[in-house]
Amino acid sequence: MSRMKYLTLLRTLCLFAGVSLLAIAPVQAAEVAEDDPASGMANLIYYTLGNSFVTNYDGAGRLKYLKTDIAVRIEPGTAPMLDMHLPYIRNKLVVLLAAQLEENLISTEGKEALRIQALNEIKAALDYLVSPGYGERVRNLYFTSFVVQR
Asked: What is the pTM of this model?
């Protein structure tokens, strides 16, 4: 079989399997960069903190609601402790969310400050419940949805 026919057959098989030859090289390069130990993030995993958080906030005047989903980036082996203490952690976050003022929830700066406060609440809870320093295994917190009803 000639080289041209072989490449055409290979390309056809790859396309049939849903893989593009052009897409293979960038994916491999991205995987290599992501596994770089210097990045410090290669082994971290995402962990969702259960169902959506729905709470009222800013007790002045009419009822206002906040609904958000939260995920954290954790070191491997941390998930079992989060599972074990999830009710406690969720309670701390509900109390934090309910204490927010409207101006904190509608500005980008306010949301970022709330994100940092929530991350610190989780770290403090794990330090208290598991052992001092354990909270550092939680590296970051993300609002995967954030809806405010005023």
From this structure: 0.72
